Amino acid sequence: MSKxxxxxxxxxxxxxxxxxxxxxxxxxxxxxVLLIPQRLAKSTxxxxxxxxxxxxxxxxxxxxxxxxxxxxxxxxTRTTLNKKVGIILKPCEIRAFLELVKLNQAHLDNxxxxxxxxxxxxxVSDYQEFLKVTDSKRASGDSFxxxxxxxxxxxxxxxxxxxxxxxxPQNAHISILTCGVDxxxxxxxxxEDTLAEKLxxxxxxxxxxxxxxxxxxxxxxxxxKKEREKVFKEIxxxxxxxxxxxxxxxxxxxxxxxxxxxxxxxxxxxxxxxNVLKYESAKYFRWAKKKGILRMPTDTxxxxxxxxxxxxTSCVECGSxxxxxxxxxxxxxxxxxxxxxxxHVFDYKPGIDVKDELPLATFKEEELEPR
Amino acid sequence: MAEFxxxxxxxxxxxxxxxxxxxxxxxxxxxxxxxxxxxxxxSGAVDPMYIIRALIEGIDGVLIGGCHPGDCHYINGxxxxxxxxxxxxxxxxxxxxxxxxxxLRWISASEGQLFANTIKDIVTKxxxxxxxxxxxxWGT
Lengths: 371, 140
Ligand code: SF4
Ligand code: SF4
Ligand code: FES
What we know:
- The structure holds two protein chains of two kinds.
- By secondary structure, chain A is α/β, with parallel strands linked by helices.
- Chain A has two domains: 2-225, no CATH class; 232-361, no CATH class.
- Chain A has helices spanning 14-27, 69-77, 91-102, 124-132, 140-149, 159-162, 193-198, 212-239, 242-248, 257-261, 281-291, 300-311, 320-324, 331-345; strands spanning 2-8, 33-40, 43-49, 85-88, 111-116, 174-177, 186-192, 205-206.
- An eight-stranded mixed sheet of chain A has the order 3-2-4-5-6-7-1-8, with helices on both faces.
- Chain A is globular.
- Chain A is built from 14 helices and eight strands.
- Chain A starts with a strand and ends in a 26-residue tail after the last helix.
- Chain B has four helices and four strands, in the order E-H-E-H-E-H-E-H.
- Chain B has one domain: Rossmann fold, CATH 3.40.50.
- Chain B has helices at residues 17-26, 48-57, 77-94, 112-129, and strands at residues 8-13, 35-40, 61-66, 102-106.
- A four-stranded parallel sheet of chain B has the order 2-1-3-4, with helices on both faces.
- The radius of gyration of chain B is 15 Å and the shape is globular.
- The relative contact order of chain B is 0.24.
- The A-B interface holds A 239-243, 245-247, 250, 271, 287, 290-295, 300-302, 305-306, 308-310, 312-313, 337-338, 341-342, 345-346, 359-360, 363-365, 367-368, 371 and B 47-49, 52-53, 56-58, 69-70, 76, 79-80, 82-88, 90-91, 94-97, 103-105, 133-140.
- Bound molecules: iron/sulfur cluster (2 copies) and FE2/S2 (inorganic) cluster (FES).
- One iron/sulfur cluster binds at residues 262-264, 315-321, 332, 335 of chain A.
């Protein structure tokens, strides 16, 4: 169960009233530190804030994910916390964070997850374009919200966001609701029951869900679903034939950015960076002899298909991989499409319920037959 | 033209199927010579990467042999292998690589005949499927 509160917004400064609320969380020791996005010159980056004076330039609703914050949150919570940490995550980042909890890379104790309705994000470079056409004195989150709510999209969102299934957060302790809410006047907070009591020193105004919210959410979900079907139909053509699959990865330069930025690929040292894949010279010539010709460097498909096999049941479809690909390979879309197929086998949805066991960490004695 | 002879790689668990293959040999049970055996300590030790590597190189069929359910020396390696192979086959199918090229079978140390029969079956099936098209692609 949750309780609802509202924050008044003055002069359409949504972020300002939100930041005021967040700083009061620090003041009243609801949290001791905050992980929060902050404007830094040409971009917005994640910061850890102890001093509530420093919250002024925070831009918690900024439509950009420079580094998947679940990775940062995992770094902050890997060992026992003696502080209460408030972490601001987008819905997909919460899902990744919960997978990392299951993978023993992060912990939920002493963590307050703060999230909000997400209307999508840009890549870091598109975000810079977006900033150019907005009022530099306003928080980018405010400009963006106003833009989507008045239907004027300037720069296209990342594909992962265009096809996202969960634009509203799940498993957040505090959710900032702006969809179907007149957010230029007020913001709605959905607060988990257990935390609501701790917020009493803030004397927040209680509120209830506006009726129009459900319809507004449904509309977004419908649009995204339609786009998702379209995008998946396209990618299926490329994925389902091996020659097309090879062609998809013909521009891959093997930088492994896709893996490095993936929140789920948590291994300290990836198998693909070890000596296992450094061969004696003779081996290359043997391979070349076999097919008469050998693509160099080797192992492009081996890398991608192996990575897929190792982690795809936990892929949260955040699209971080795609945003990091210098060759603009639709790698996130490929993973999203295939993740659905693999997760379906185990009836598993990553990052939704922390109690659902990782498919590869468990088994049933009787299942999956005939093989 | 000579008949197509499929190449098969078999990843066999040391405790069961590998010993089963051995038994087939010592008992002089005949089976096709198309198979190359790689011994591992458990079917749960077969990283999908090995199978993917073999398929990309153009191997026609892959057999993973493990202990019967309940008999794995590492308690549940075979159950975990079954999940991994299921994911692999699901993905291969989506990518247009015939998932029937990958066989996971439970064969114990005493089942020499079953091992020989399994090899016969996989060779017959791979002859039906024809050569692995991956052998024609170098852009991998
Ligand atoms: S594979 Fe790509 S979309 Fe999936 S979790 Fe990793 S970065 Fe996100
Ligand atoms: S980020 Fe792009 S180019 Fe780099 S390895 Fe991944 S798919 Fe290839
Ligand atoms: S020991 Fe044989 S399958 Fe695990």
